[in-house]
Amino acid sequence: xxxxxxxxxxxxxxxxxxxxxxAYAEIARRLDRPTSTITRxxxxxxxxxxxxxxxxxxxxxxxxxxxGQATSRGSKAPTEDYGRDAEAVRAxxxxxTTVFIASGTPKMMARVMAxxxxxxxxxxxxxxxxxxxxxxxxSISKAITFLESQDLVRRFREEGRRERYGFDxxxxxxxxxxxxxxxxQVAETSRQGVAVxxxxxxxxxxxxxxxxxxDFVSETMIRAAEQARExxxxxxxxxxxxxxxxxxxHG
Length: 251
Hints:
With 251 residues, the chain is mainly α.
């Protein structure tokens, strides 16, 4: 039933739907499931081209078994301090991971990002990440190296303690600005091709139009990021009576 775990029969229907070229939303409708459930199921089990119902079912059983073992050992879920539903948090973390993957982030890096995003402390050590995600320290090291290169995580060193990794308030701004600069670089490179292909030729026109479009997108991203930057530092409840947007005149 909707909201429960997927059955083996449902997974077979997902595999059949993928083979028939159906969209996630259509598969979800036929199974009376949320689209996010189908997306998460497929992305964590090989993607549209590699999804296999039997393998996905066995992988889920193994994950459930590992969680049961962790519970029996008395390990405390990191979300219990605030009275959260641990199962709901795990499901949401998987959804967030799927969204990061869909945006182009490699799977392990996406898992690390989602884990850090849902950490109340704001940071974790490499050992803590490896324990929570049940992966090797080498996998965490590789993921952190990639995420740092993309300005998607920060490295913190507390006095007398090991290095920790996490987000700060400015990381989304810096990520957006990096994306805008990358888009602007593509625009500039496209424009350089106009002279090479010959002004007025079909290829040159295509490149020029692409450059103009990407320039506009890049400039808009930069303006929006600058205007909205203050939102990253807003504390809950401080803008409840504020109906103006970021960067607008409050007078």
